[in-house]
Amino acid sequence: MKKPLVSVIVPIYNCEKYIDRCLESIVSQSFGDIEIVLIDDGSTDGSLARCKDYAEKDDRIIVYHQKNQGVSRARNKGMALASSRYITFVDGDDSISREYIEELVFRQRKYPNRIIRQGYREVAGSKTFYKSEPLRIRTDDFVRAVADGVINGSACGYLFDAELIKKNGIQFNASLEFLEDEAFAVEYLLKKAHEVIDLIGRDGAYVYYKNSDSKTNSLDYARRIDGYLTSLEYIDTITNYKYAGVVEGQKEKLILENIIGVKKTAQLKKIKKVLKNHNISSKNTVLRDICEKKYRKVLFIMFGNRMKIRVKKLIPAKKRAIVS
After folding, report:
1. Cα–Cα distance, 220 to 149 (Å, whole number)
2. Among 84, 80, 103, 77, which residue's Cα sits nearest to residue 160?
3. I need a labelling partner for 101 at 20 to 30 A (CA). Which of 9, 149, 233, 278 fits?
4. Contact at 8 Å (CB) between 235 and 247?
5. Shortest CA distance to 141 belongs to which of 151, 131, 132?
């Protein structure tokens, strides 16, 4: 039996409200030489039943159910089951355009030495509040590009080489609660050093939906900060501290963004403890200003950082591209 060219791996956990939107966008792809690997990670709603319904109608769909182990282990299981030449990831609450895979494959065949990634947009309700622009950057500049907000750190959107992943044992780190996507992408790109990431398309073929019930929104500030710092320390380690300065800047940014909502003394004490555990002095962060109720100063810093990111996004892609 002929193996499919592309495996679409979808980790699913309690996505009943969104799963039809996601799966309809995948089964209706203009490029048909695919397999669709659905990993239900112990859903307690009707997600698994919906997956099975789709599998009965489409023999390209593989459904695997496991006890809840987290998105990283779900994706790792999907990679273990995949039989194709290429792998791409779609989250169960997101969707992709009809030509999404066809465009990825076309571009990969045209430029076999590039790492191809689809364009994306971010949507809240019916409003699109960000859309990526075509861009080419060297793999060596990925960490800096993510830190600067030029490109997001998600593993979704890429056309990954399945053979390279399996040969090098690249997996999602299940011990990371946040930024596991960025860590996976970094590990993959380390094996493709000095090559080019080609971010294609202006229409935002991959659609990220901002949902109010997301994991990030449900966690307290201290836990979020701890998770981000742990992941960034891991990225620092696997890159042999090559981007230490960039990673430190990303740490400061994430601490700043999460600490601004803190107003209770008990939360501040927990955050101080987290920072201490990560060998970060509160004297070197805006935590001191928060404690002293200097919210205007902190908001001014945040506004300045966000404006810098927006300006970078507005710069024409040709000027931003590191490779022509």
Report:
1. 24
2. 84
3. 149
4. yes
5. 151
Under 8 Å between Cβ of 215 and 131 = no
- Shortest CA distance to 196 belongs to which of 158, 154, 147, 149? 158
Return the pLDDT at 202. Answer: 83
Q: What is the rounded distance in angstroms from the CA atom of residue 317 to the CA atom of residue 303?
A: 24
66-86 burial, b at 16+ Cβ within 10 Å, e below that, comes to eeeebbbbbbbbbbeebebbb
User: Which pLDDT value is given to residue 324?
Assistant: 39
- The segments of the chain whose pLDDT lies below 50 read 317, 319, 324
DSSP output for 107-118? HHHH-TTEEEEE
Helices (H), the chain: 19-27, 47-57, 71-81, 100-110, 142-147, 162-168, 180-190, 215-218, 221-238, 244-259, 265-277, 287-291, 295-314, 317-320
Quote the CA–CA distance of 145 and 153 in Å, as a whole number: 9
Whole-prediction pTM: 0.87
Report pLDDT for 268: 78
